[in-house]
Design brief:
By secondary structure, the chain is α+β, with helices and mostly antiparallel strands. It is built from eight helices and six strands, in the order ββααββββαααααα. Strands 1-2-6-5-4-3 form a six-stranded mixed sheet, with helices on both faces. α3 (95-105) packs across α4 (118-152) and α7 (198-264) runs antiparallel to α8.
């Protein structure tokens, strides 16, 4: 599917799941290198930026949480940035891009005082919208982490082990797909300055600022998850140690009782006390006295 947006001399072409015919038409219209055009027909393995004679080719991968339409954990967005044109290629519905396209349709973003570089304005607007949506996702994860923190200190340590793994997985995927953005964007700034001048480099600096804001939120969430996991593990370990301590004490207390019962249950010809009219109560009393002294011994050692 091909969507076109035009403002003055600048054209933005948005390709979604492009066919070979659509890619060929765009390649011929904007004189795109055939090797780049060939890459536009399928997803690429990693984020990168390349400089060509009169355009830049940028590939960025973004993490996906609940809004994906393919079930994958990442989405790819390719940019071909020329002086008077911008081509975006995507292989899934990217909600932030759809939202920005509606803004461009009514020309709200282009009515600002950036007439000297419409390509840079559109490019900045797209990435700003995407990074803003990712920042909102991080805030959503942060709120779920806060609920997990409440559960940890409410005595639900076992349940929180699984609960912690879900946002932890999302954040690790987030980090995996966005870690390369800083280097790619910094290279884009250098290449864009040479090819398009100061105006474009200015917009890339603004994009890098948006990325850093998002990355700081990611780092804060990762640090919080790490601290909560350590706290939860410590509380869970303490609780398990207390249980083992209690079971050990019970075992030590019942051991002499079992020993006494075994002695008086021996099948021998003579057993002291056994045979008297009150022998049962005497044996019980011996067991109670032994239990009392074992209990006092544990209290003295401060094991209880």
């Amino acid at each position: 599917m091909v969507n076109r947006y035009k403002h003055k001399d600048t054209v933005w072409v948005d390709l979604k799941h492009p066919t070979t015919e659509e890619v060929r038409a765009v390649m011929e219209e904007f004189s795109i290198d055939p090797l780049v055009a060939n890459e536009m027909t399928s997803e690429s393995p990693k984020s990168r930026v390349e400089a060509h004679r009169d355009f830049l080719y940028l590939i960025l991968h973004f993490p996906v949480f609940k809004h994906t339409h393919t079930g994958d954990s990442k989405q790819e967005l390719d940019f071909i940035i020329g002086k008077d044109f911008l081509i975006t290629v995507r292989y899934d519905t990217i909600d932030a891009l759809e939202k920005f396209a509606k803004v461009v349709e009514v020309k709200e973003i282009l009515d600002r005082d950036f007439e000297e570089d419409c390509t840079g304005v559109i490019f900045f607007g797209i990435l700003q919208e995407i990074y803003s949506s990712l920042f909102n996702e991080l805030e959503y994860i942060g709120s779920s982490v806060s609920r997990i923190e409440e559960g940890i200190f409410a005595g639900k340590e076992r349940e929180m082990v699984i609960e912690l793994s879900i946002p932890s997985r999302d954040l690790l995927n987030f980090k995996k797909y966005t870690d390369f953005h800083r280097d790619v964007l910094e290279n884009l700034e250098t290449l864009g300055l040479k090819l398009f001048g100061d105006h474009f480099a200015y917009h890339v600096k603004r994009i890098i600022h948006e990325y850093k804001k998002m990355h700081n939120a990611l780092r804060s969430n990762l640090e919080l998850i790490s601290e909560l996991r350590e706290t939860n593990n410590s509380l869970l370990s303490t609780k398990q140690n207390e249980i083992m301590k209690t079971l050990t004490i019970i075992a030590f207390i019942t051991f002499p009782l079992t020993l006494i019962a075994s002695i008086f249950g021996m099948n021998t010809s003579f057993i002291p006390i056994v045979g008297r009219s009150d022998d049962f109560w005497i044996v019980i009393s011996i067991m109670l006295v032994a239990t009392f002294f074992m209990f006092m011994f544990f209290k003295y050692k401060k094991w209880l």
